[in-house]
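My main concern about presentation is that the manuscript never shows what a single data entry looks like. For the editor and my fellow referees, an illustration may be useful. For illustration, here is how one protein appears when written out as sequence plus structure tokens:

***
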Amino acid sequence: MNVKEPFVITISREVGSGGHTVGRILSEKLHVRYCDKLLLESLEKQFGLSAAEIENLKGKKKNWLADILGHVAPVPPGRAFDLNPAYTEEFRVDITTDDVFKAEMAILQDFAQMGSCVIAGRSGFFVLKGHPNHLSVFIRASQSYRVDRIMKKQNLTEEQALAVIKGLDKARENYIQRYAGVSRYDLRNYDIVLNADGHTEEELADTILSYL
């Protein structure tokens, strides 16, 4: 990868590995945009969903709009949906995870075309694999490291933290296998694979910089 030309670095990571923070630090050191929160905000605007809802829905393999509407505006017995017109204009009853992926893919490609950037997660390693100046990074960590980090960060018990890890791991793997046709754990997808155990986020970012 040539840092003197417009580039994109995608950071894929296991939840609890600190990869999100590594991406942010790396973008600051390289003085480029960090595309994570911006991406979520774009998806939220398009689909009217929170970041947490988008994350949960990504791992599902069915039409999910009815479930969301059921929580937001339950159907009274014997009646049709009675929603705010502005709300229904924003939605189509056939929206699926396919629509989320297509929107996500378009947003990622737009970000990459706008100039050099670091992108955390969001299936970037697959969507941007054809980019002429792309570095793909995967950050992993042991289960004990991930559990400990999530317990401290979210004030959870060990059992709760482990449930979070298992749930997100399964959802993200389902999503990637469906749309990329590969496993996110297949290390051939990445140029660099880093183990977070025993390292700070700053050290991991510096390792990537050293590679560059």
Remarks:
- The chain has a mean pLDDT of 81.
- The domain at 8-211 is CATH 3.40.50.300 (Rossmann fold).
- The two ends are 7 Å apart (CA to CA).
- The longest strand covers residues 134-140.
